Amino acid sequence: MRLPLLPLATAVTIAATAATAVPAVAATGPSPTVIVVTADGSGDHTTVQAAVDAVPSGNTSPVTILVREGTYKQQVVIPADKPYISLVGATRDPRRVVLTFDLSASTPKPDGSGNYGTSGSASYVISAPDFTARNLTFENSYDEAANGASQAVAVRTTGDRQVYDNVRFIGNQDTLYANTASATTFARQYFRDCYVEGDVDFIFGRATAVFDGCVIKALTRGSTTNNGYVIAPSTEIANPYGFLIHRSRLVSDAPDRTYHLGRPWPAGGSVTARGQAVFRESWIGRHVKDAPWSDMSGLSWRDARLAEYRNVGPGAGVNDDRPQLTAEQAAEFTPRKYLAGTDGWNPLRHHHGGHGR
After folding, report:
1. Rounded-to-integer distance, Cα 165 and Cα 221, Å
2. What is the separation of C-alpha 286 from the centre of its chain, rounded to a whole number of angstroms?
3. How far is Cα 174 from Cα 80, in angstroms, rounded to an integer?
4. What confidence category does residue 75 fall into, taking pLDDT thresholds of 50, 70 and 90?
5. In this predicted model, what pLDDT tens digit does every residue of 193-221 receive, in sequence order?
6. Are 339 and 357 in contact (CB under 8 A)?
């Protein structure tokens, strides 16, 4: 499952500026590379993309891109041939480092070749494997109220073994596109202590994604009946693991019983997509409907793989429209099982001691 790396023709080292505090390391290895991004020009680069561009293709060692406080408005691509990047806000408060852009799917391209489309609207496209983001905000600032509803992606992820820690994802429709490089590839993404907000299908895609201890906020669209859908997994049937919402909080400013937990998305008209998702041991607010699942594009939610387990809160419930896992089944749908893959990847151990997770 590991993505092939391009050969590194020459060893390239990017020296951090003298002003950067680089922790001392043992003499057994090279110093970690730190690239500093500051809007005022006092760092190595003024934009995140310039810092990414400075990382060599086929990169083989850890690189930290440290982003100082501020708002950085730019569309950014972190390509698949640049693994081992950590994109880190310079403060523990993710609201103080904002990475933003404002395209939507319906925004016309300047060259007249059509609109950007959902994938093209992403403020950040993160295709690299072994990527980490910490302590920052990804945003799509497209003004839905002023310009009309449209897909407007904050982040589109396609890389394997990605970790997002204390990160905020801000948007309306299609905020977080947790995806894979193709319908036949897998990609695992771990979201820990994150915050995601949006309205329609605002966590969607084909990836194997675990949301652990997150806050997921469903925004009102002013409807008294249907304000949106939290998730829209497009998991291929060959993949047993799609989305896991684990020990998280589902909150909202929408009226009671006006939100769906989700609907299964047959991405690109796929006839083999059967969205897989479990909400487990989470707190669910009163915005969620008693019949919380919905069909999508001709695919019945009952033909997908959608379930709950031991949720609590005013929006939680058990009825014929809310399939529940048994305890035995639930043992197969833990964060560790979702993320292990064939290589035994376990990003949980640093944070949770892996107690049966």
Report:
1. 28
2. 25
3. 22
4. very high
5. 999 999 999 999 999 999 999 999 999 99
6. no
Q: Do 139 and 171 meet the contact criterion of CB atoms below 8 Å apart?
A: yes
User: pLDDT tens across 170-191, in order?
Assistant: 999 999 999 999 999 999 999 9
Q: What is the CATH number of the domain that holds 93?
A: 2.160.20.10
- 10 Å CB burial of residue 238 (0-12, 13-18, 19+) is exposed
Q: Which residues of 307-329 are buried (b: 16+ CB within 10 A; e: fewer)?
A: bbbebeeebbbeeeebbebeeee
Please, what's the largest Cα pairwise distance for the chain? Answer: 63
Express as a percent the part of the chain with pLDDT over 70. Answer: 89
> Domain span at residue 316?
64-352
| Cβ atoms 281, 310 nearer than 8 A | yes
Shortest CA distance to 232 belongs to which of 206, 211, 263? 263
Active-site residue set: 174, 201
Residue 36: inside a domain: no
Q: How many CB atoms lie within 10 A of CB 250?
A: 24
Task: Tell me how many domains the chain contains.
Answer: 1
Which amino acid, residue 223?
A: S
**Strand (E) or helix (H) holding 49:** helix 48-53
In a domain, 11, yes or no: no
178: left (phi over 0), alpha (psi -120 to 50) or beta: beta
